[in-house]
Amino acid sequence: MTNKIYLSDSYVREIDAIITGVQGSTITLDKTIFYPTGGGQPCDTGIIGTYKVVDVKKDGDEVAHVLETGPGFGVGDTVHCAIDWDKRYMHMRLHTALHIIDGVVEKLYQGRITGGQIYDDRARMDFDVPGLDRAKAMEIMQSAQKIVSENHKVSAKLISKEEAKAIPNLARTEPGEDLLSKLDTVRIIDIEGFDFQLDGGTHVASTGEVGTIELTKYENKGSHNKRIEIMLR
Fold this sequence. Notes:
233 residues, Elongation Factor Tu (Ef-tu), domain 3, Threonyl-tRNA Synthetase, Chain A, domain 2, 4-stranded antiparallel sheet, 2 domains, alpha+beta, globular
């Protein structure tokens, strides 16, 4: 099983790791800082040895790193790994921004997340919030920016399934309860004094790092599906 460093410390940019498997241009490592695509967050890219990492995927308990070409090293070799930090850090900022926005929506409207996606330069989130329009979306942005300016601490925590089930609205992405039932240990992102929810992605350490949230698009995609798109400044 790959030791997933990104889950415990999103700020590690470089490590040395041991190759545990090679199949064509895909390798596995004993530990990794590369986040695999999942949960609406794109994978990291970067360098392993002298090879570019072009894709990272979940493979059961392992993390599969797809290199640009077949590598010239083998199982047991130690390699130096470095992620594209600017790309990762933007993903972290955007992901935390989405959590803040969702926290505002949950508190004001008891809305549910119906979808979301983080890109390299922007992010979108879909909500089931009847009556949500552009004016209300702007109000949500203003409330979210207030949380950013208050610079709340953001941390990842592991809790038991039993503890998680006792917390209302912890799993907000559909189908949240189904996902929760499959996990023995639950990872949550805690925005101290504001919000916490089930999540497996990477985040900044304080809301102040998010910067300025800008609403770039609002779409009414149906009575149960409102979409917002944001960028950060």
